[in-house]
Write a structure and sequence with these properties.
Layout lengths: L16 H21 L3 H10 L5 H12 L3
């Protein structure tokens, strides 16, 4: 199965290894952000996308999750 985000490669649960790792890190860091800022999941994803220091892969994952109710 091709990655549902980039269309390249194969990996676990429909994403390539690179996007799967980016999603893992994104979800892992949410708890820290939520504790410190009180942001909800969708607000967190929006903040990640707007942050100029966020990497390309993480932004792609965050965008995908927002668009697909993830």
């Amino acid at each position: 199965m091709k990655c549902k985000i980039c269309g390249r490669g194969e990996g676990v649960e429909g994403t390539c290894d690179r996007h799967a790792e980016a999603e893992r890190k994104l979800r892992e860091h949410f708890n820290v952000w939520a504790e410190r800022t009180g942001l909800k999941w969708t607000e967190y994803l929006e903040a990640i996308i707007k942050n100029e220091r966020t990497g390309k892969l993480v932004k792609e994952v965050a965008t995908h999750l927002l668009q697909n109710g993830g």
